[in-house]
Write a structure and sequence with these properties.
Immunoglobulin-like, 4 helices, 2 domains, YmcC-like fold, 359 residues, twelve-stranded antiparallel beta sheet, mainly beta, globular
């Protein structure tokens, strides 16, 4: 083959390979990410006293709401307790060629409106939940600095007898690739800007309706080959709903960086010598899982399972038990897929954790 043609072929092959979104995610379950997060004040300065840590764990590949999903368990907390806290929530990722999909979690956006009137907040939260689903956040083959719409939806929210025509959008943009040095190594990262945008729709006939942005929260994300998200940065955001008679307020920003694993053996001993409920295993599960716990003294103990609405669906333990470590099996063959909560009560003290049933 002509050397020039061969070189061109190899170059195109390399480009094609680099655009495969799945190549940026770990290939094996069991992979863990350790993060350090700094909340940012209104001037985007780190607030060190509020620093917290997180651990994500690639748990399983399974079908989730119509797509093959890489399911990641996630938790966050203080440095001296994070290793021993339960995984309470999950993240979902899926891939199709050059597109990386993420399951939209309305909780992120709902948290931005916690400072406003409860009636208006409830309207927003109801609307945000209607958007829940899969979206292609990361488009590896998109042109640099060219925006694309991940989703856009119009709605009307009524507040104090006033109808507010609004548009909520998630706007993506691929930025120039960047070499990023982290605590776990240096990576040539794909870099994206994601903006959650809320606009007011103005209609002045005969002119076409146009949107006036009233809130935009921008998150910059760095994706590293085989490591996925290694950094994210969201500056603080000033929210101005003064047109509704609501005082201007600031939503704090957040900078999160990948970190080395955290260790603290002494903390684990102190917790286990007192009273501790372990995360069920496996989790997610189908249909059976094991729940274990440790108590340091004899007491009356109950272990019950609840659905997310607070309805009791099973009672596994209800008896006096001596000090020690215990394990019970829970079979959810008759329950539907979803998140469940298991609650252990020991001598009047309660601990609870989330678990996920996937059928």
């Amino acid at each position: 083959m002509n050397p020039k043609i061969l070189s061109l072929f190899l170059l195109l092959t390399a480009i094609s390979f680099s655009q495969n979104a799945a190549d940026y995610f770990p290939s094996q379950t069991g992979y863990k990410w350790y993060f350090k997060s700094h909340p940012l004040d209104s001037l985007n300065n780190p607030v060190d006293s509020l620093t917290y840590y997180g651990i994500d764990s690639f748990a399983v590949v399974s079908q989730f709401n119509g797509r093959s999903a890489n399911i990641v368990l996630t938790k966050s907390g203080l440095l001296n307790t994070i290793n021993f806290q339960p995984y309470l929530d999950s993240l979902y990722f899926s891939f199709d060629g050059a597109n990386g999909y993420e399951y939209f979690d309305p909780v992120f956006v709902a948290g931005l409106i916690g400072n406003i009137d409860s009636v208006l907040a409830l309207n927003f939260i109801t609307f945000f939940h209607s958007l829940e689903g899969w979206y292609s956040y990361y488009r590896m083959s998109s042109n640099v600095n060219q925006s694309y719409t991940v989703f856009s939806k119009d709605t009307t929210i009524t507040y104090d007898s006033t109808s507010l025509p609004l548009r909520f959008q998630l706007i993506g943009k691929r930025l120039a690739d960047e070499n990023l040095t982290t605590e776990i190594g240096s990576f040539n990262c794909k870099k994206f800007l994601l903006e959650r945008r809320l606009s007011y729709l103005v209609s002045i006939p005969p002119l076409p309706t146009f949107a006036v942005k009233i809130l935009g929260v921008e998150e910059t994300v760095w994706l590293a080959p085989s490591s996925w998200k290694v950094k994210s940065y969201t500056p603080s955001t000033t929210v101005d709903f003064s047109i509704l008679g609501i005082p201007v307020f600031t939503v704090p920003g957040l900078e999160t960086n990948i970190n080395l694993p955290f260790t603290n053996v002494d903390e684990e001993k102190n917790i286990l010598n007192d009273f501790y409920l372990f995360q069920n295993y496996p989790n997610p599960f189908n249909p059976a899982t094991k729940i274990s716990w440790h108590t340091s003294k004899s007491s009356w103990q109950t272990l019950k399972i609840y659905d997310v609405l607070g309805n009791e669906v099973a009672a596994l333990v209800n008896e006096e038990k001596p000090a020690g470590s215990y394990e019970v099996n829970f079979n959810a063959v008759n329950l539907s897929s979803g998140v469940y909560i298991y609650k252990l009560t020991v001598d009047g003290f309660v601990q609870s954790k989330k678990m996920m049933l996937l059928k």
